[in-house]
Write a structure and sequence with these properties.
With 281 residues, the protein is α/β, with parallel strands linked by helices. The chain has 2 domains: 2-179, HUPs (Rossmann fold); 192-280, Pantoate-beta-alanine ligase, C-terminal domain (Pantoate--beta-alanine Ligase, Chain: A,domain 2, 2-Layer Sandwich). It is built from 10 helices and 9 strands. It has helices at residues 17-24, 41-53, 71-76, 81-91, 102-105, 123-127, 131-146, 158-171, 199-218, 225-240, and strands spanning 12-14, 30-35, 56-61, 96-98, 150-154, 175-179, 243-251, 264-272, 275-280. A 6-stranded parallel sheet has the order 1-4-3-2-5-6, with helices on both faces. Strands 7-8-9 form a 3-stranded antiparallel sheet. It is globular, with a radius of gyration of 19 Å. The structure holds adenosine monophosphate.
Amino acid sequence: MFYLFKNFTQMKILLNKTSLTKSLRHFSDIGFVPTMGSIHQGHLSLIGRSNQICHKTVVSIFVNPKQFNNKKDFKTYPKNIKKDLKILNQSKTVDFVYIPKFKDIFKNNKKTKIKLIKKDKILCAKFRKGHFEGVLDVMDKLTDIVRPNKIFMGNKDFQQLFLVKKYLKKKYNTDVVGCKTVREKNKVALSSRNYLLSKENLILASKIVRKLINVKKSIKNKKNKNKYLLTIKNDFQKQFKIKIEYLELRDINNLKLTNVINTSRLFVAYYLNGVRLIDNL
Ligand code: AMP
């Protein structure tokens, strides 16, 4: 692993919590960007925000097996640590990269005691059993280790942001800052999972997101918006030959189904060639 570290003058790489804690002990204004690697511009935008607001920025790279409800999905999740470190170093906005091993974070592989309440078992939580419990578990552990003042997370994973904010608020004195979704020119939201898609898939993803942007506009005139979205969902499934898990208009403050456009977002999850994509508009 040490060959990876050469030439990084400002950015320090830390492989365990002891060295991380030691390195951070003199700093009080820490911004934290947790990631699962395969770094792209979306991650870099969160890091940029942290770099603007906080004195030091810590980025973690850890593909958390506990949040995968599907073994194959975990195995095929794109990983490229060497490239990630190069990009992070070149950005000149990262002070510390924390790359822990499973054991550094979790004592064992036991199922977490964290449970979602019934009203949170919607959207991704409904379709990916145990996923958010795994996310909250790792965010709890990482926050405890890094002790950041602020955590920067993407609106792209809105439900994740919502649940993490709610969970951490009870335990830590840390702000969770939601950041804007970075998109390709063709409107597709950047995601590490996009690396798993072919060119044709990406063109289709772009068609789908553009159509959804129009749906969001046209929905204004519909009386029962979520009923209308069910028809759209069926049409899309037939037209694009895709499996859509959900297409729902939900309130951004409580994630309840809503008919009010101003305070809502259109949430979608679908499979493209076996790859699960999510977005919200
Ligand atoms: P991940 O590595 O996919 O777990 O993502 C790490 C963080 O980056 C999460 O807070 C995501 O919401 C955020 N993120 C992922 N994609 C984007 C994007 N396209 N724009 C902004 N933030 C993103």
